[in-house]
Specification:
Layout lengths: L13 H13 L4 H21 L5 H11 L7 H12 L6 H12 L4 H4 L1
Helix pairs in contact: 1-2, 2-5
């Protein structure tokens, strides 16, 4: 991991600052370490949620069943795919890999392969 070289500044209310200071102190950390740790945990949770789709056993079985049968896409599915493909919020695999690499780099290879 590289040494920190960037700064992040934020404005907080007196009440929020007092709460953060108290929590950092109770946790035996300085404010920078506490805030950074909390932000990184939230960032990992958020990016990890992009990688995982959870299904019930029934939904998983249904998905596998549908994937095993070739069918022609219906017009609604075609329109949905076009909207998805043209949505600027949708990222391609290269962008996704770059986004999650810092998150997954600390995981053992058994979790990422």
């Amino acid at each position: 991991m590289t040494a920190p070289s960037k700064r992040v500044n934020m404005r907080v209310s007196d009440e929020h600052l007092a709460l953060i200071k108290a929590a950092a102190h109770a946790n035996g950390q300085d404010m920078t370490s506490f805030v950074l740790g909390a932000a990184l945990e939230r960032a990992r949770d958020t990016t990890n949620s992009l990688l995982v789709t959870r299904l019930s056993d029934q939904a998983y079985d249904e998905l596998l069943e549908r994937l095993d049968h070739d069918t022609e896409p219906n017009p609604t599915l075609v329109r949905a795919f076009e909207r998805y493909r043209n949505d600027p919020r949708v990222i391609d695999q290269t962008q996704l890999d770059a986004l999650v690499a810092p998150v997954t780099s600390h995981l053992p290879s058994t979790f990422t392969n």
